[in-house]
Predict the 3D structure of the following.
Amino acid sequence: MSRVGYSPVPVPSGVEVTISGRMITVSGPRGELGRELPESIGVTQDGDSLLFERPDDQRHHRALHGLIRSLVNNMVIGVSEGYRRQLEIVGVGYRANAKSSDTLELQLGFSHPVEVKAPEGVTFEVPQPTRIDVIGIDKQAVGQVAADIRALRKPEPYKGKGVRYVGEHVRRKAGKAGV
């Protein structure tokens, strides 16, 4: 059984944590994030770390204990270091072009280019026409935008064409035998 909720969240220098009632706000060099905590989970700041406690060992409280600790840890990492999700495009004629830092134009084999707008707090970088970097301070938002871009043209199993995460392995099929 996991004991994630009991491990403290380290707060690096340059990151400020504010706890007011059920609201926790984390601000750092990259921005500010806030989250409302559930009633059953308590949080205290002990020097340069955050400690989380639960009222009892009920299943629901145990689950919330680890979840809230992980979410606040992701907030601290996001405002101090930020998150980056890298995608690569495989296919002849498939490419990406950054119109601006929050607008991406993709050529994915359709009859028209696909335009993707980033939500607030997420930006795009295109270091190469076949590479896309999704950058932001909110881990959930960065992951969701990257998943939405990948869903536009998932890697197909015969030639491997499509949008995939960097380092993702695409299982290939043999195709026709052709006797």
User: Anything to note?
Assistant: Helices lie at 59-80, 139-152. The CA atoms of residues 94 and 108 lie 5 Å apart. The radius of gyration is 21 Å.
